[in-house]
Known about the structure:
By secondary structure, this protein is mainly alpha-helical. The chain is 66% helix and 2% strand. It contains eight helices and two strands; from the N terminus they run E-E-H-H-H-H-H-H-H-H. It has helices at residues 31-46, 60-79, 85-99, 107-127, 131-144, 150-162, 166-180, 185-205; strands at residues 15-16, 23-24. The relative contact order is 0.07.
Amino acid sequence: MAADPLETFTQLPLAIDPTSKALSSPLPHLTVPLTSLHNLQRALLSLPSQIPPPPLPTNPKRSAQIQKMRDQGNTSLRKSPTNPSEAIQLYTYGIEMALGRPGWEPSQLVREEASLLFANRAQAYMAGGMWAEGAADAESSVECKRAGNGKAWWRRGKCLVEMGRWGEAAEWVREGLEVEGEKEGELVALAKEIERHEETKRREGR
Length: 206
């Protein structure tokens, strides 16, 4: 009965060139496959590398620039709360820089930065009465960071209320309170406002 080749180990006389890394063997029947292997190796090495470098420490310049955009946006919004266009642009620059970090940098850092900037830009949109844009940004902030993000939960709920989408606002705020708890005073107050509105509607419907 022939031996199973998968269970049989045969050591072949192979040598590797320290310079070219090419394999060679005195056995004639290995010449062609080893040559093909060497050619494949050379072809692969000649391709442009698509592999990112190993993880490096976070780029401090990018971090500082992102924080600078956020700080400048906050300052602009405080100075011109009724004209938030400059603040919106600054927050947008910060968001683009945060989301443009190289893939090997910590994803948690990207989510944290983006969460803050989306929440800030939502506030700026709200200052300009752009409720749909504010709601979208606040939701993006929550998607980046669900817990410990009460302001973003409140901002989207408030935007929905301002747009008259009371049912969606009630569901959103209820979910926010489940995540954040009763410690978020603004969120609790908004929930009570929505409850009063729903109660008024029920009374008027009788």
